[in-house]
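Margin note: ligand = copper (II) ion.
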Amino acid sequence: MSANADSHHHGPVDWPQEEHVGEITAGKLGMWIFLLSDAFSFSGLLLAYGIRRGASDMWRCSEELFNQGLCSWLERPEPELGINFTAGLTFLLICSSVSMVMSYAAVVEKDMKSAKMWLGLTILGGALFLCGQMQEYFGTFAFIFHHEGLIKEGLIFGQSNYATTFYAITAFHGMHVLTGVTYLTVMWIKMLKGHFDDGNANMIEIAGLFWHFVDLVWILVFTLIYLIPL
Amino acid sequence: MDLQPIHHEPTTFVKKYLFTTDHKVIAKQFLWAGLLFLLWGGLLAMMIRWQWAYPGEKVPVIGDLFLKESGGAITPDLYPKLFTNHGLIMIFWAITPMLIGAFGNYCIPLMIGARDMAFPLLNMLSFWVFVLSQIMVGASFFFDNGAAAAAWISYPPMSGNIGTPGHGQTMMMAAIFVTGVATIMGGINYVTTVIRFRAPGMTWMRLPLTVWGLWLTSVLNVLFVPVLGSAGLLLILDRMFGTQFFVAGANATGTGGDPILFQHLFWIFGHPEVYILILPAWGIVGDVISFFSRKPAYWYKGTVIALIAVTVLSAVVYGHHMFMTGINPLLGQSFMILTLVISIPAEVLFLNWLHTMWKGSIRLTVPMIFALGTVFVFGLGGLTGIFLGTISTDIYLHDTMYVVGHFHYTMAAATFLGTFCAIYFWFPKMFGRKMNPMLGKLHFWFSFIFITLVFGGQLVVGYAGQPRWFFDPYQYTFLQHLQDANIKTSWAAFALLFGQVFFVINFFKSMFAGEEAGDNPWEVGTLEWTIPSPPPVHNFDPIPTVYHGPHEYAHPGVLEKMGKDWLGQDEAFDGIELSASTDEKVAQGA
Ligand SMILES: [Cu+2]
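Resulting structure:
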């Protein structure tokens, strides 16, 4: 070992390329592995939903069934899910995924003004989605939508498999959206402080991975829970 | 681009020993936490054994201390709490932190030539979340109605509000959820570190088998612990918030739920869990047998393929736990065949280990005999498992002590001996001192003989028809003649506990007064033995370059030119040029 070599051993050392994954950063790789893991927790819940729904004779106690006296333990029939409203929310989430990509692309091109705008719009999209979910559950914005929310309409957590799986899975997803909005807000503050001015978009890309995952899972949840006809 | 930084030695006590991000210190923290709960879980096991030998009689020492109300005896109310907590504590809070938490943390960066884990902060968080879950386990004993009592599998309706009322059971389910979060954090860290942080030249086919075992375990953890988390979450909702995922029959209002759904979710995780616990031990044993046979591991590539095959197969066999639950016979058949197919890669592993030893210059060091013990008891576990994987024999053996004996050979005896193999092997590196081989051998013979007898005794009484979980088996005439066998088995268990005294003495004495170990006391070639014992905070300075696999022994050319029978992974042999400057290599290569 030469004395010359010794003198610069004590600094940080770069990693070589990996033979299969190339130059992927540890953070990005870690996020992918986390998302794989998270996908399995969603699949646990969706599996429970699928098995319960597949095995049940009566999933939703509609007005018709209620009047026939088939669900005597309920005080009133259970409402349908508002597909149109939630389709709007789904569209909102997809749009926010697009704006996330736009923000990433802008950081790479060092166009920080657009990057800040697109990331801001992404956060706004996520926040509006959460507001939409509150409206759907509680009717928080009933003065706009003239809809009093599923709880007041008689969809109570715990009263039936239909109600319980709906709330458990959409709320679990909602927590992911909340996490994502918080995460992106932290990134946005970093961006405002000039953290990404050098065009290094790695952290934005990792945050984007999480956001796209939340979006993708929602499309699955929307399809399985809302769209499969009763 | 990320860089591998050099961390400075922390100066305050809190940063150095408590909230540390150094993987070597976190490894020791996991080891302490695991050893403490191993003792707790072990004492619970002794109480169960006492009950099966002398039901209703006063428990010595423990009875005086903790069971004053019942006059020192184990009550029917306490009894299910004992085996429930014994099982859960041993699996989630003793073996997992020791094999995966401690040795995963210690070995992975050192053996692949990295300066730390990929995410040191996440690593620290993982440990403290784990501690939180341990505190929750402790707390679960102090609620009305006491601790969890629905067996480790926590099947509803037993684990529901009607089967086991009170917050103890809920707290335990929450603790499992929290420790699951800690495990996933660790798993993400291990998987990423092995993929991305390997030193130059450390290709996948040059990884020590220990790292292979730990990596595959972490992959299984990352994938299947979340499923257990979902199941636990739904059970907590059932217990606390009036939902009915797993509530059926007269207990349900309305349409109700399905208790069998829990069994599916539980075993989707539960079967891989068996391999989560044993894969690290297999990896360690594979390395140690090669090291102390002074021979390259026989058919290294075959061993790796077999480990991967077991990992993949472990995900698709869970139905063999539900033959008696009532599943579609066609599904049952498929699960049976898939289960029995696992014996093929397992055989490859066994034959490779035996072949490695064949005509080797075997050194019967303490880690080596523990490795051989691990192989032996796992062999017994595997052979007895065939009869449970086959539907026709499982119908007779299901829910008997035979099942208990079988899974203790695999999940308890093999991981127990494997963990001690690891402790004896890496102790010199962790603490810079050697352990006493005489005490180590005494510890081994006590542990090995009596652990084999304890679980052998369970197999025998199970085959004779004794069901598991019975409070007092001798209330049934057809089991009364088994009391003798159970008493002998219990005394084997007490002797097993006594044998651990040799370890405790050895462990603490050697830590402070053991002989200085030096860099490489075992004369082996993996990277952790090329640096001082204990290693500096940043491990490697410079990052080594790796030239060949982990098992280069008895190479005639090396013997001739270097006068030793082993070659370090960072020693180039062609013309014996020593490790070139990493920086230059990196500059050229990457
Ligand atoms: Cu199994």
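Residues 68 and 118 of chain A are 53 Å apart (CA to CA).
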